[in-house]
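Researcher: I'd like a candidate sequence for this fold, 110 residues long. If you have to choose between options at a position, lean toward the conservative one.
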């Protein structure tokens, strides 16, 4: 015997708004693809920093980089990457496609 669930109009509206906002009910494949791309991107950034003799500490999805006496924070977000030095209030934002700009900015900070 199947169970019948009755929803109120407000419940239906919330469900419809969520579906419209997300654009897709099943986002597991998109999330998985993003995670794989993020891991590869993080590996590229990590190898670049290690080639500059920097120590990279992973904090969640972010990096804390120690070079000489400088500390740089690299934050990986879904919309891009943010880089800031210790003591700065605002981070510089980059898109994932701007690897050259990211490397040049890290060279300036190091």
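Model: Candidate sequence:
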């Amino acid at each position: 015997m199947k169970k019948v669930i009755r929803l109120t109009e407000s419940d239906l509206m919330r469900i419809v708004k969520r579906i419209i906002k997300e654009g897709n009910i099943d986002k597991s494949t998109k999330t998985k693809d993003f995670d794989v791309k993020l891991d590869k991107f993080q590996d590229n950034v990590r190898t670049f920093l290690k080639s500059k003799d920097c120590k990279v500490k992973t904090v969640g999805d972010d990096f804390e980089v120690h070079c000489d006496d400088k500390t740089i924070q690299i934050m990986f977000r879904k919309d891009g990457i943010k880089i800031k030095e210790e003591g700065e209030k605002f981070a510089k934002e980059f898109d994932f496609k701007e690897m050259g700009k990211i490397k040049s900015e890290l060279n300036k900070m190091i």
